[in-house]
């Protein structure tokens, strides 16, 4: 497995976003009074052409929705783009190869009937605009440049399908943050880029002695929610006093109905390493909640049920194990897991059991460096 490439500046731009804020043209009006008049049309996007790329992928994600539902919310994903531009309302095109947004998840939507679940998923194989009920959110628009002209994907596809198909095929990538201002928010509403200085962003190289040369994690660190975490070492970033870590399964299907699963959140690490089993032995580590938590903040109701965890099946929800490393245990096939480490100068104002959304808001405007490390875990043979 090849190392995931560092970020490349691709000059992602939109004519329909206003100074890095969402406007009503692209916001989803859910019938409440919060975002009345939202037209739910996909934004115009353009980016630099990449040498060696034959196609592009675009994804829009709200990581801060994890405070409400226990997982990032995918708003739009498009694959096999031959040009470096998407026109305004491109999602309405029948020829665009689009994937499912997060409303397609039968678990999230509390749909148990198979036929209804299929119909709901097909209705959500398109763009859905931002609509945050709790506070202002930062949304990530990411572009991947792909070396192949066509990725082998179903129509439509899940983000998990696309993530698997992109393995070893990303030649460049970049992202921007776009802010949705909540009408009653006077605290978190100001736009900040994720990075303190995007032009001087440092690359963090991450390694692990517990991952073999083929990229597979040693089995003692997987197949149990109580498995010890693997060791991680990374390069120091000048000016950084702290590091924060996110570990995701972007290929989750079983536990979340096709949405990413958060396996590990750690903030304010004051060294550039984590020893194996640090979750249990290092009392200085500040852990956040994984997707196995029951403690989320939703204010929505869907089908008269809470639009929140525990939408994840009970067997994946663990009392006492939610705020620690949660060992990967793919149920359907081999999965590729992603560890992201951010470097920052000052300690983030977070407490034990913090959510990914809270970490995201605290990181915005403060990140000095980033690194991405991937490893695989085989399906457990029972």
From TrEMBL:
Coiled coil: none
Pfam families: PBP
InterPro entries: PEBP, PEBP-like_sf, YbhB_YbcL/LppC-like
Gene3D superfamilies, sorted: PEBP-like
PANTHER family noted in UniProt: PEBP (PHOSPHATIDYLETHANOLAMINE-BINDING PROTEIN) FAMILY PROTEIN, UNCHARACTERIZED PROTEIN YBCL-RELATED
Protein name, entry field: Phospholipid-binding protein
Source organism of this protein record: Mycoplasmopsis agassizii
Taxon lineage: Bacteria, Bacillati, Mycoplasmatota, Mycoplasmoidales, Metamycoplasmataceae
